[in-house]
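Key result, reporting period 2: structure in, sequence out.
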């Protein structure tokens, strides 16, 4: 099936490992030109070189530490320059720190909100203005979490709050920009086999599996295909929705 992604220009944040790497690899495999971004300059270069060679697309690596002030704006501007414009933004980068509320510092809370909610806001705002100025239709896909709906019992209240905020922000943005031909949707993963949660899975994999009706955590590719679908022309009539890619961990 042709997903209409060939020749589209895509920025995927946090795309050097885990879910982000799977997303950018699948989109490049569909013929999209991609920005590979992440904190590791070596990984950014390695993956962008690999995708150019394997898929024949324009793959550009741009190192970015989105925790630094001004980094999101710089990444967006450099991405537009590198590809000559953007059609799709995937806000994937995020953090999953552990701290129970009774011990959580304001710095920990603020950093989580900044990375998981404020950075996607900044990039979404720039993307919307870019598309409107260019009179260009486009897609924004946010990676949220089942925790946005379930909450957390394992010391991730700040993470759950940040993702819940992103869900509602995205729904509101979808209402604002639908008339411009811009679709804004989200994917809510459950537990995945990614570097971000590998320590937790190593300690409590049976616990997490027991909470999933399908009986296992997801592979990054299984969730990445949901992102690719929402970025594609097959999702042109969908906006403001969240796909729950949780193996049944979240059912609504």
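The corresponding designed sequence is given below.
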């Amino acid at each position: 099936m042709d997903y209409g992604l060939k020749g589209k220009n895509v920025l995927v944040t946090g795309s050097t490992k885990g879910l982000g790497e799977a997303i950018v690899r699948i989109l490049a495999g569909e013929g999209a030109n991609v920005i590979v971004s992440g904190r590791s300059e070596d990984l950014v270069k390695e993956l962008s070189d690999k995708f150019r060679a394997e898929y024949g697309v324009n793959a550009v690596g741009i190192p970015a530490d989105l925790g630094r002030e001004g980094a999101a704006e710089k990444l967006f501007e450099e991405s537009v320059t590198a590809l000559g414009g953007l059609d799709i933004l995937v806000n994937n980068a995020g953090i999953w720190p552990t701290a129970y509320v009774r011990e959580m510092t304001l710095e920990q809370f603020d950093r989580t909100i900044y990375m998981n909610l404020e950075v996607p806001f900044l990039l979404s705002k720039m993307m919307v203005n870019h598309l409107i100025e260019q009179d260009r239709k486009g897609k924004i896909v946010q990676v949220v979490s089942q925790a946005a709906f379930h909450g957390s019992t394992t010391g991730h209240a700040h993470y759950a709050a940040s993702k819940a905020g992103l869900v509602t922000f995205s729904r509101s943005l979808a209402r604002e920009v639908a008339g411009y031909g811009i679709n804004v949707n989200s994917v809510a993963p459950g537990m995945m086999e990614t570097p971000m949660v590998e320590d937790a899975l190593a300690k409590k994999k049976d616990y997490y599996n027991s909470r999933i009706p399908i009986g296992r955590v997801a592979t990054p590719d299984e969730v990445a295909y949901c992102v690719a679908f929402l970025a594609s022309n097959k999702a042109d009539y969908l906006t403001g929705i969240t796909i729950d890619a949780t193996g049944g961990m979240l059912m609504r």
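The longest strand covers residues 182-189. The chain has one domain: 9-245. This case is discussed further under Risks and Mitigation.
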